[in-house]
Amino acid sequence: MPDLIFPPGFVWGAATSAYQIEGAAQEDGRGESIWDRFCNTPGKVKDGSSGDVACDHYHRWPEDIALMKKLGLQAYRFSVAWPRIIPDGRGVVNEAGLDHYDRFVDALLAADIEPFLTLYHWDLPQPIEDRGGWTERCTAEAFVEYAEAVSRRLGDRVENWITHNEPWCASMLGYQTGHHAPGIRDFSAALRASHHLLLSHGMSVPVIRANSRNAEVGITLNLVPAVAASDSEADRDACRHFDGYFNRWFLDPVFGRHYPADMVRDYVDAGHLPPEGLSFVRPADLDMIATTTDFIGINYYNREVVRSEKIPEAENKPRKVFVAPESEHTDIGWEVHPDGLREILIRVDQTYQPGKIYVTENGASYGTRPDSTGEVHDVRRIQYLREHLAAAHHAIDAGVPLAGYFAWSLLDNFEWAFGYAQRFGITWVDYQTQQRIPKDSALWYRDTILQNGVESEALKATA
Ligand code: FCB
Questions:
Q1: C-alpha span between 412 and 332 (Å, rounded)
Q2: How remote is the CA of residue 313 from the centroid of ligand 1, in Å?
Q3: Which residue, 260, 252, 244, 238, is CA-closest to 348?
Q4: Atom of ligand 1 nearest to the CA of 20
Q5: What percentage of the chain reaches a pLDDT higher than 90?
Q6: Which segment of 136-150, 227-241, 348-362 scores lowest on mean pLDDT?
Q7: CB of 203 within 8 A of CB of 226?
Q8: pTM higher than 0.90, yes or no?
Q9: Topology of domain 4-462, CATH
Q10: Is 7's pLDDT higher than 70?
Q11: Mean pLDDT throughout 31-60?
Q12: Which of 208, 288, 366, 390 is the most exposed, fewest CB within 10 Å of its CB?
């Protein structure tokens, strides 16, 4: 029996995003997104796949809502595809696109499932990218027009709004490392992109509120607690830098603290910013970005052990102390470190006092397949979820105002640059037949929701 019981009213959900599950890339007037273009560029996605069909959720959503209902989900976090709403990025609104989400939201509500709507989960209309994408300030204005169109149509029924999903990924993976669409490798461009993403968040909050009287609005950040590989000054400084790059660069401005000065200095020193610093930031921008929100969403998967590149390999051995050989990794190679969730929740609460926090994503990639009877015994995913929920519970005990948890993901889906090779779903998807099979973790999650709690003791692995 569970001994870690969550507070009354704690919201239990699961999450997905449009490009990863919808498919129907050409339907009902949907325009091209940067992910369509990226996937069609050879060498960008590991298995050469795309989201053209994905889980065919665009057609199968009634079945998928029935599945959510069967699992007892109280809330569902999904994203709207901007290219379905404004195919050219700016200008004409495609009513057929809005109609789709309109019907979908009605069906969720009829099933008594609370919609949590993310406006931007990375599928920028390609015509906007052709004009510079997030490196251009006018993309923030385009985003506000899109937010206006969606919130005007759905604002009477959707009450939970997330402006952006993981602006670190959208800016840094998209424009700095090029691992994600649009595949650009230019650090300065990525820094401009990060600012315009955050700016568009702040600019859209009042627009959403004006269209949705009961709206609670927030932003979702992916946060990665960092530890230094050793006590050396160089490693500790590398850890500070990593934390600034990944976490503080986004948290600080959202909570009214400006961009971190140490990072601006580092970026100027490295030539990523001009000597005068943040030349693309206008005086009123920071107030706009710090617009009061109702909650922050945190996506947590793993921590990072940070080692300075300034120390030659041989002298930097202590790193091994932290990355213990026995530490477990999921199929995508991310370390399993549940306590990092407790740590980051407490830190965000104590440093920024957001008032309300949701874990908007947490989950694991394990490829466990159906056995001969067609069941999926994904014991390691159950362990992962249980341990992270226990960590979340400890954070609540420590006073963190955690209001809900969304498992990533409801369905196996298109995992960006990894294609279909990585399976994060609590539901198995057979991509040939589009059959859905709730894995053992889904059934376990259903029981967890029913009991509003988890067991603190580890389950014995049986498979
Ligand atoms: C997050 C993304 C989500 C999914 C998970 C595994 O960074 O928000 O779409 O890819 O990682």
A1: 14
A2: 31
A3: 252
A4: 9
A5: 92
A6: 227-241
A7: no
A8: yes
A9: TIM Barrel (3.20.20)
A10: yes
A11: 98
A12: 288
Cα-to-chain-centroid distance, residue 242: 19
Paired tokens of 126: 């390609």
Q: Give the residue extent of every domain in the chain.
A: 4-462
Measured from CB, residues less than 6 Å from any atom of ligand 1 are 17, 20, 165-166, 169, 222, 299, 361, 408, 415-416, 424
Of 76, 67, 162, residue with least CA distance to 121: 162
Query: Whole-number mean pLDDT of the chain?
Result: 95
Q: Tens digits of per-residue pLDDT, 344-395?
A: 999 999 999 999 999 999 999 999 999 999 999 999 999 999 999 999 999 9
In the DSSP assignment, the letter for residue 215 is: -
Helix segments in 212-294, DSSP class H: 233-243, 249-254, 261-269, 285-289
Residues marked active site are found at: 166, 361
- Which is more confident, 19 or 324? 19
Residue 460: DSSP 8-state? P
CA of 363 to the centre of ligand 1 (A): 9
**CA 126/CA 181 separation, integer angstroms:** 10
* Contact criterion met (CB below 8 Å) for 362 and 301: yes
Mutation to probe ligand 1, out of 55, 250, 299, 423 (largest number of atoms < 8 A from CB): 299
